Amino acid sequence: MQFVTVRDLRGKSSTVWKKLQTERQMIITSNGKPIAVLSAVSETNLEETLMAIRRSVAVVPVNSMQDQSVRSGLDKLPLKEINEAIATVRRGNKA
Known about the structure:
By secondary structure, the protein is of the alpha+beta class. It has helices at 6-11, 13-23, 46-72, 79-94, and strands at 2-5, 25-30, 33-39.
C-alpha cells in the first residue's frame, strides 16, 4: 500500500489521484504518522464502500470492549447476572 504525505496530497494532487486509480487505496500521513485512508470509489460502489467502512470502524470499539471485559473477568459472568444488570439499568432509565 502506498503512503502519501499531506504535503504531496496538497502539492501533487493530480499525481495522487492518478495513482489512486491503480493503487485503489493509499495511506495519508502527517509528520510520518498515518492519519487517513484514501480509497477509490465509483458511483456504483459508493454506498457499499461507505457501509463497509462504517462497519469496520464500529468493530474497533466493540473489540476493545470485549478485550476489556476479558481482562476484568466479566466474560465469565453467568447469564442470570447479566440479565439482572440489564434489567437494573433499564429500570433506572425509565425513572
